[in-house]
Amino acid sequence: MGSVELGNQTSSANQHMDQTQAARGQSPSQDEKRDPKTPLGVFENQSSVDEPCTRTVIKWKHGDPENPYNFSKTKKSAILVSAICLLVNSTMGSSLPSNAIPYILHEWSVTTQEQVILSISVYLIGYVLGPIIWGPLSEHIGRRNITITTFVLFLIWTMAAPLAPSWPSFLIFRFLAGAVGGAPIAVTVGIMCDIYSDPRERGTSMALFMLPNLFGPLLAPVISGYCSTTIGWRWTFWIALIYGSACLPAILWVPETFGPALLTRRAKKIREADPTAQIFSRAELEPRDSKQLVTRVLTRPINMLVSELIVSSTCAYLALCYAIFYMTFQAFPLIFRDLYGLSPGVTGLCFLPVGAGCIMALPIAFLWDDYLSSSKARGDPWTKKQENYRLPLSIAGGPMFAISLFWLGWSARKDVSFVVPMLAGVPFGCGFTLIFIAMLNYLTDAYEIYSASANAASSGTRSILAVVLPFATLPMFGRLGIAGACSLLGGLSGIMCFIPFVFIWKGERIRARSKFCIALKAQKCEMGERSKGIESSGQ
């Protein structure tokens, strides 16, 4: 085991460490020889008032190879690729039945209009519940166990869907797949925050994080469009299952990245090697019971959504964009299949410009990161403000997203080639991606170790709106027409464009009043690398 930094609270712990080092032929360091009554840090005292504290808190030492921040670039890249594979499975599952819906409904003689969208909506309902549970739990017990458990269950429920004997059972399996499939949305962001301490690296990883979030749902209509008309709608799910099974070895390999969980594991190994050692991680010294789990951990995303202005505003903006994105899975068939008479397979291909726009957004994000880094190196004053790191990307992406909706609505006419409204997908995808890269990065930078909960709140609200608004798609387009409905959505998106401007204007003041940001700042000061402690080699 690598070196660790220990915050000593007692003379008994000092003596234990001296004896351990003597057995290894090592001499105590200067910090270890100091007066045992001199505190090396402020930690939770687990003893009574009349008894000396006999516990030592274990912390990371600078350069520790087991600290996820210090993983090699190769290992970090492999973790990132595995996380992207995990996300593709999750997001592709959301829209998997989209172009197969008529065939699925015909299978079980479902005719009511309200049930047309249920095969996608019930999955997104699971998305609402999943991240609210899995994201906070990953901050409680670690990322790895949550990731593996939910992915295996996801494969099981994906396999169950085409084997369903009835429409209700099919919907139940879709809901269960969404409930576990929503875990990567929150947990993956936490993993990226665990392994990347450099904001630039974290920003790059977040840009790559957006690829599966957008390409997964866009790939699914192509698969379902061609499978349902040739080899049957069930093969849509079999192909998804084959891909997921191919990704399973990579998911099983992903190591634990949550620092507190790793420190707990290390402390337990030390105690197993020496039962007299009173060495614990900070997480072990925190009281754990079912009441605390519910009131503090599982309700944290809701608490952040209600009490944190940054979280609530970001959630509102991203939820609207996300819901509009899922509305296109009904709007595109209305436009390209019904208006222009294209086949289901070709209609699925009409989503490709959206994917092209997503790809175009990535070099924009990378160029911005390069410009930001060079500006910080020059010491430009504007780089001292955290809001300037990420939010300018959303300022560029917001208008693009809104304009694309007006473009789509006003050009979708029989006297205009279908290529013209189809090309509106390019600014749609580019703007959508830039908005998400900027806002999710801002959430991650602002809340760091609480980022999984913040993103769980974001994912939950996005999924709620993505469930509700698609039910209004067909009635809205029927009453307002294609131009009117797209103009309404474009207008709402235009209003939301002002949120990043407000953050740049008042963001520092908002964070200064945030209880989570205040707690995070205090914890970083307490657990910083400059805090003095005893250096010891673990076993």
TrEMBL record:
Specify the Major facilitator superfamily (MFS) profile domain's residue ranges: 78-508
Q: Which UniProt keywords apply?
A: Cell membrane, Membrane, Transmembrane, Transmembrane helix
GO molecular function terms attached to this record? transmembrane transporter activity
Compartments in which it is found: Cell membrane; Membrane
This protein's major location comes to membrane
Give positions of region: Disordered. Answer: 1-46
Sorted alphabetically, the Gene Ontology cellular component annotations on this record are: plasma membrane
InterPro entries per UniProt: MFS, MFS_dom, MFS_trans_sf
Keyword field contains Transmembrane? yes
Which membrane topology term applies here? Answer: Multi-pass membrane protein
Q: Does the keyword DNA damage apply?
A: no
Family assignment from sequence similarity: Belongs to the major facilitator superfamily.
What this protein is called in its record is: Major facilitator superfamily (MFS) profile domain-containing protein
> Which organism's genome codes for this protein?
Clonostachys byssicola
